[in-house]
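On to my pick:
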Amino acid sequence: MKAIITGASGMVGKGVLLECLDHEAVTEVLVINRNPLGIQHPKLKEVIHRDFADFTALQSQLEGYDACFFCMGVSSVGMNEADYRRVTYDFALALARIIRTLNPDMTFNYVSGVGTDSTEKGRSMWARVKGKTENDLIGLGFKQAYMFRPGMIIPKRGIKSRTKAYQFLYDYFLWLVNLVKFFSPHSVVDTTQVGKAMINSALKGYPKNTIAPKDIIILAK
């Protein structure tokens, strides 16, 4: 399997990347980033691309892939709806549309979040935007499209969150996250599980488009 990954400099994306590089069924990984990752690996190809609203310049490099793991995302805190929609919706659909044409049998996985509003009509701005993104990605007609909705995520393998507030939580309150996991084991996942679940969804398929934390745990096995 050959996979494309976005957001590999973030916590979830890096977790997915590391699992892909380790997995025997993954033969090649193309990472699309704004800045170099600083990782060298025989399976890894890296493309530096600045404009995530337009991927036409990369068209010749995006053909022949079996899966795309879209892990790029930002927090909605402090953002207005137009700016959040541009980064969340426009960037995902810009890549999805072009690779859907080039790779009709591809699996497309999108990192969304618990609480996403599939009706697109709720009060929460981020949930509405994520909901529309999910709905339109599914509507593109990929062979398989999975919307990953992890809740609390524990970083593994030395991964750090780029969001300062989240990293502060992991640094000082990881015990609390582990306590939540103890009492509600299906509500918390880790970056390794997310990575393995993404790979397995592409290799084996899954009966649901929406992948909740419980589904991530099942897929990771």
User: Anything to note?
Assistant: The chain has a mean pLDDT of 93. The chain has one domain: 2-219. The chain is about 40% helix and 15% strand. Residues 81-102 form the longest helix (22 residues).
